[in-house]
Amino acid sequence: MTNSQDHTRTLWDAVVIGGGAAGLSAAQALGRSLRRTLVIDSGQPRNRFAAHMHNVLGHDGTPPAELVARGRAEATAYGVEFREGSVRAVRDEAAAEDASGGAGSPRTVRIELDGGEAVEARALVVATGLRDALPPIPGLAEHWGSGVLHCPYCHGWEVRGQRLAVLTTSPLGLHQAKLLRQWSDDLVVFSAGLGGLDADTERTLVSRGVVIEPDPVAEIVGDGSRVTAMRTEGGREFAVDAVFTASRMVPHDAFLGALELRRADTPFGDFLDVDGTGRTSHPRVWAAGNVVAPAATVPAAMGAGALAGAAANFALVEEDFALAADDFALAAQDRGLEPERAQRVAGASS
Ligand SMILES: Cc1cc2nc3c(=O)[nH]c(=O)nc-3n(C[C@H](O)[C@H](O)[C@H](O)COP(=O)(O)OP(=O)(O)OC[C@H]3O[C@@H](n4cnc5c(N)ncnc54)[C@H](O)[C@@H]3O)c2cc1C
């Protein structure tokens, strides 16, 4: 039976959960390292709302779905397999021999899918991205990714010089408010989300011609395909061409709960704690992309994924040597040889 027909029984070298920019890069690195790799993906990359990607070197203007399709084809060419589905839980599984005290048998992680199936892997890369919880303002969700934007580096050029609004959602919004002035001198900042503005901050914004509107936004008005205005609770209307705002970013990591991984408090919220290679506090689990780095754009997610894939492969390389050395020592013992003597015998017969 082939791997794709019998995922339940196969022990994979590596499983990657999430097939976006980070996951596909990790999968490519693992596939090219001759690791038997499975990608499990529910097919909802974060940027699916946008027609084109920008600030992605070599892919400027490429539709997000096209990048994913190319990434899948490339990984497939290196033997990576794909499975559509959603992971609901990951558990730390000691192999049966380990549970009975046997030495050297590899421990694995068990990955359970929504449909009830499960696979096991020696290494796991989590690249499941995040969910953008949007401010509940009428008109906003309809225009997310077209007239309502979150990242000036991704979409600022396309709306440069136009009438822009910043809808602040937290005190962190001041950063976005200042940033957007770089792309347009026709900028209104809806400041209710910043809390009270002190005089210094107000002067800073006004000094470069930024208009500050304290009245909370009631609605984002559009004409079907485009954003045309912002309406405040007090009934004031501001004509705009595009709105920038920040979502609350919720990582897709609840399915890892049983592993009790270490977490870190960040300015963006509570995220998994990883080292520079993406390794979590579990020695078999790496994480890359938006699931651990909410500010990562596509190129950053790709880089982190490639690094995590390589790091996972290297951990397996080390383990392969450790297991082989254990087997070697056991075999020598069986033959009544001292390890040094066994080594000489092996060297002489090779
Ligand atoms: C509207 C919008 C436009 C953007 N435009 C740009 C741009 O122009 N340029 C740019 O550089 N960046 C852009 N970004 C940012 C970009 O989306 C992210 O940097 C990128 O998607 C992060 O990649 P990732 O692989 O970490 O996550 P994702 O691309 O979100 O991929 C995660 C994958 O994991 C899957 N998944 C989640 N949970 C599970 C589970 N439990 N089981 C199985 N699979 C699961 C998801 O379905 C998804 O396919 C934009 C973001 C938004 C919101």
TrEMBL record:
Keyword set, alphabetical order: Flavoprotein, Oxidoreductase
The UniProt record lists the keyword Oxidoreductase: yes
Sequence intervals crossing the membrane: none
Domain FAD/NAD(P)-binding: 13-304
Catalytic activity of the protein: [thioredoxin]-dithiol + NADP(+) = [thioredoxin]-disulfide + NADPH + H(+)
UniProt xrefs under Pfam families: Pyr_redox_2
InterPro entries for this protein: FAD/NAD-bd_sf, FAD/NAD-binding_dom, Ferredoxin-NADP_redctase_2
Gene3D superfamilies cross-referenced by the UniProt entry: FAD/NAD(P)-binding domain
Gene Ontology MF terms in the entry: thioredoxin-disulfide reductase (NADPH) activity
Protein name: NAD(P)/FAD-dependent oxidoreductase
Lineage: Bacteria, Bacillati, Actinomycetota, Actinomycetes, Micrococcales
